[in-house]
Amino acid sequence: MSVAAPPTHAAARAVAATKIYGSGDTAVRALDAINVTFEQGQFTAIMGPSGSGKSTLMHCMAGLDRVTEGQVLIGEIDLSTLSERDLTLLRRDNVGFVFQAFNLVPTLTAIENIMLPMDLAGSQGDTDWVDEVVSATGLADRLKHRPSELSGGQQQRVAVARALAGQPQVIFADEPTGNVDLNTGAEILGFMRNAVDEMGQTIVMVTHDAVAASYADRVVFLVDGKIVDELVDPTPERIRAHMNQLGA
Amino acid sequence: MLRLGIKSLLAHKVRFALTASTIVIGVAFVVASFVTADSLRSGFDQLAEDINTGTDYTVRGELPFGEITEAVAPAVSADLVDDIAAVDGVEIAKGGLFVNGVIPVDGNGEAVTTFGPPVAGTNWLEDESLSQFYLMEGRWPVGIGEFAIDITTFEDDGYDFELGGTYQVVTPTGPREFTLTGVAQFGFPENAGVGAIFSLFDTATAQEILGFPGEFTVISVRAEAGADIAELQTRIEAVLPDGVEVITAADSEEEFSDATETFIGPFQTILLVFAFIVLFVSTFIISNTFNIVLGQRVRELSLLRAVGATPGQVRMSVLTESAIIGAVASVAGLGLGMLGALGLKALLNFFGASLPDGPLPLVPRTVLWAVVVGVGFTVLASLVPAIKASRISPVAGLAEGTSSDEGASLGWPRLASGGVLLAIGLVATGLGLFGDFDGATPQLSTLGAGAAVTFVAVSVLSPLVSRAVVSLLARPLVWMMPISGRLARANAARNPRRTSATAVALTIGLALVTMVSIVGQSLKVSFGDRLANAFTADFIVTADTQAGLPKTLSSDIRAAGIGTPVGFDLDLVQIDIGDSQVETQLTAARVSDLEAVINIDVIEGSLDGFDPQTGLLIQSDVAADDNLGLGDTVELTFVSGDRATVSVAAIFDGNGFWSSWFIDSALYDQFATTAFDDVVMVQSAIDDPEAARAAIDDVLDSYPQAVLEDRQEFQESIESSLNTVLVLVNVFLGFALLIALIGIVSTLTLSVFERIREIGLLRAVGMTRRQMRRMIRWEAAAVSLYGAVVGVVLGAAFGMATSAAIPEDIIDTIAVPYLQLFIFLVISVGFGLIAALFPAFRASRMNVLDAIADE
């Protein structure tokens, strides 16, 4: 347990996390004994070529999937010890999500979507905090609208707000700008950056877009299920250079 | 395109099975109806053939009017036997007696009775093949102190009979003691199950105790070998007096067949009506399933169009798919229907119907119907979805996302077409209820068609209101369970067309159930009121066998000095009024005592000084219709062929609870062909009800078939038999509800599949499996509550209209069983919860990652 960085600073970490799909000759090592720590209050991007295991890593870290060997911890909670139900409750209370698309429940209004995890928990949440998050989205006047009445960018901002609203330990975002145009992407990434800087949130984002990754504090490069490199205070140019080096 | 249809079916087995299962049930119902009826027919025909084996002719009294099933023909003189035997070509002729209402009492004092079949007394014949009674054990009874019984009763574990024992037998001439000497088999051993019960005596004893001295009810005749049956019939006829007929074995088999058909036919028709209700409901379910599935396959279909399939080919592929489903379902339905027929026969026997054993005949007509309705209804149901599918454009699949939440065509066209259909449906229903028809069949057909069109109209109009109504009905869910409830409510309301289509099956089922319960309740209340006002009698005696109560019963009560008993005997009579003739039911009773037991409101004339031999008492409406006034005379012809002239002595006002014609039993009993009353009413002379009951019970000890009730109990037992009928009807309507349940399961399963990403998202952000299941269960509950509310409202309207349409002498008060209707709604909520078990389970077990990744 003492291998990684001091626990007080880690929002989430993986210790020798291994994920194997299939068995015998056809077994595929999607994650190969990965050690990684995501510090509190940091914005981390995970990059890598297709099939490098970046999505698998995110799913395992977020409690959507389980590692085959090793450990994944959110705060001090070891996910491998949790039952399916406890894992669900952990996702609800300690993890936020932003997916590439289909982030919102179509039958719920924007504000209902934002409040969804807290409603599922039967809690009010921190009202001041929720107000702050909502005002940061800039969508205060569209809260009663349903997702189908919002633009793609607005929908993603609502999704980020939902992830933020419950003050989770860590937020995982899977290509959050993959489905929107450049300007909208920048708007969403700015909002996420702001959540880390102004609100002290922890975000882990999977992306293949160097520009998107450049919004992060740190970029982790994954190849063949292993962390091969990382970059602090990245710029798009440096990221592209690294990617080229990795032969991706 | 055929191959495509088959492939598509194989790819979606669960959906295919659910869709097919509704049609399987409908087809099975049709098949079971036919097969059960055919089985009864062949069983009874075989029985008729067996009974007539060894007998070439039957000689009997001829009914002057009416059918042999409606009345008991008069007996014939015993002297005829010799006259017939003397006819050249006749091998043997023997007189027989067959009298219903001869009841043996077993060693435990229990009367042997049946629900419907005769409990009869008869005489045995030396020539067993002529009488069809075969001695199985002991010896034939001889003289006034001995009898034999049929082997079925003897071997029945429920009864205690032993050879050599002495038992009471209640005969039309009163109860008597007999020693059991023998056990006989009726007909051939393989058809032991006619259900009739026989006590056998020697001929002289039978004539005496059954009340036919010097007479027979039937003479069985066998021709010599090689005789010309038709020619000999003419010669036998020649020796018969007027009012006696001779019929051949073939005639009597046919007559038997016709007689059994009078209940098998309606039985089959009623079952088929239920079968068509089930199929009708299934049509909505199937149509809905096709709509959803084709909606999900828009990409595939548009790709087909893009690569060159014509709209016609797309349409054909959908219709082919449905035809295959229909065909497979028909075959499965045939199998299930055969099982159903077995079950139905067992059920009928359980209710005491004692049906003959027999094979389950699967005739070509049944198979043809199974395939026609199976394929027909499925293809019919897929017609609209198929046309819609053929209109999918080749580029439809390229558009992002194929949302199924569109409430397409929710506007004016829907309102207009639905409104027109509704108007047609309601007019036809109204016509069916209140119109003038020549016979019941066209009337009920109009009514049925009207109801069907109304239901279709409701299904067309329902999407216009379903979102608002569902949201309103499901509002409590939001208070009960903040998030699951809110989502359940939103999901139930999100697709108005789907919600409506899912709910409509339940709507139809519950509308019918509600209608039946309102008509039933109105009947009960009307009847109860009428009963309460109709009698002044303290006690009512009825019989638990078809034959009724021996006329000696009322005279015994009178002799015991308990009070004033009046026996009522309803029988068929023909009345000549001027030049016209009416066949009607006439009641014979002791008119001078009538006012002691029933409330009879005499408005003209008087019962005082009513002449028992010439007096006639009639109901005012009949008097008006037939233009009869006090003192007018009419001529009555009784079933015995005897005639009597009577004149109107009094006219009463009343609601027809009694038959509209009364004469005195003193006149009637001279000509009656049976010695039984249908009911005996007693005005007690003893003040203490308990003591009065005990005194009557003493008399009834000799009449084990008698059931003694006070007014209250009588009313309750009539209500309870009405309830039994209502329960039976509801059991059959339950099949329509079962289809509705399958419909909800099927739609919900498809919806869950369609919303897989949404479900994945909810699970990812922390919805527990339990919350997920709850959300889906309550969505189903909200949809079924919606269907139920519409159904109950519609059914209440139908029920009240039907009650209003039923003549006032049957229903004069429309009663709504509010509590029962409320319970229907509660049950329907439970119904939805149950229907959602499987879809909810599937949704909660869905792999979150797969669900999110689903394209």
Describe this protein's structure.
Chain A has about 250 residues and is α/β, with parallel strands linked by helices. Chain A has one domain (about 5-245): Rossmann fold, CATH 3.40.50.300. Chain A has eight helices and ten strands. Chain A has helices at about 55-60, 85-95, 110-120, 125-135, 150-165, 180-200, 210-215, 235-245; strands at about 10-20, 30-40, 45, 70-75, 75-80, 95-100, 170-175, 205, 220-225, 225-230. A six-stranded mixed β-sheet of chain A has the order 6-7-8-3-9-10, with helices on both faces. Chain A has a four-stranded antiparallel β-sheet with strand order 2-1-4-5, with helices on one face. In chain A, β4 and β5 (about 75-80) form a beta hairpin. Chain A is globular, with a radius of gyration of 18 Å. The two termini of chain A are about 35 Å apart. Mean pLDDT of chain A is about 85; it is low at about 1-5. Chain B has about 850 residues and is α+β, with helices and mostly antiparallel strands. Chain B has four domains: about 1-55 and about 250-400, no CATH class; about 55-250, no CATH class; about 460-535 and about 710-855, no CATH class; about 550-705, no CATH class. In chain B, strands 4, 5, 6, 7, 8, 9, 10 and 11 form an eight-stranded mixed β-sheet that branches. In chain B, β17 and β18 form a beta hairpin. Chain B is elongated and about 95 Å long. Chain B starts with a helix and ends with a helix. The model of chain B is unreliable at about 400-410 (pLDDT under 50). The chains are: A alpha/beta (about 250), B alpha+beta (about 850). The interface of A and B includes residues 85 and 119 of A.
